[in-house]
Fold this sequence. Notes:
By secondary structure, this protein is an alpha/beta fold.
Amino acid sequence: MQVDVIGVCKDYATVRAVDEVSLSARGGEILALLGPNGAGKSSLVRMMVGLTQPDSGSISYQTGDVASATLATTQFGYLPEDRGLYLDRTVQDNLRYIAKLRGMARDDAQKSIANWLQRFDLSERASEPMRQLSKGNQQKVQLIATLLHSPQLVILDEPFSGLDPVNQEFVLSVLEELRSAGKTVILSAHQMALVERMADQLVLMNRGRVIAQGSLAEVRATLQPQQSIRVQFADTIDEAQLAELEGDMNTVVAHPNNTFELTCGGQIDLAQLLTRLQSLAPVVQFSRQHYGLHELYLQAVQA
Length: 303
Ligand SMILES: Nc1ncnc2c1ncn2[C@@H]1O[C@H](COP(=O)(O)OP(=O)(O)OP(=O)(O)O)[C@@H](O)[C@H]1O
């Protein structure tokens, strides 16, 4: 299924929560929404699953040749930010209830529930009230409730929150499995290292707006992060000479062994910089630090 969000805005009383957001999520792809608290991620996903309506713009869904402005409950699974299962009811009762809401036949529901409980290592907890489970295990039951009817579109608001590293890895593998099965996966998350490993498309939001989107390489190109360069000269150099280059640099930090850490803007011409450095003394090492998603994100939202 393809989800197309075009120029969507959403206002609450005094705040524009979502501001002219456009994106396309496709089958067989994981799209990750990233952004600080209050960036508008939950407001956006709530509109994508039809819980609220955009004030302007449009959201449409395409399955094969069939386009629609709405989703049937069987077509999507949604993990809400404020989790919604009944704490006094057992794990099994909760999941049966959700399966019924999703239109599953009793036998299919039972099989799917048993299968997912086993995969999430919760089979033995099936008859316990939700309240007795740890936060992480409650979260796993919520995930099962989202996936048990095998929806084409899976939308997860912070699926990793409350999970320990082992369970985060497990959920990551489940999401990759969904992608391999051709499902459309949209999630919001704060765990950059996990997102960087799995997402095909990133949508970085801040104050309701998209500030960068695309693959990690495309996001990097859009944000043009600062470059951090390490240079080592063969001989001692006159630091005053290096300082003359400082017009181009944000910072120059000296280290032992004629080594310097240079920080400069994203657009600097590295070949030209190297030539200029070589005019000071022979350069024996010249390397650029690789920025991961975490650093890109921090630079972007703190700008
Ligand atoms: N129901 C609501 N009524 C009024 N304001 C709201 C409502 N829901 C969200 N907001 C506001 O809209 C903005 C975006 O909030 P939203 O929850 O979408 O952000 P988020 O990116 O999901 O944040 P978080 O990472 O903290 O979950 C915030 O300023 C928030 O206070």
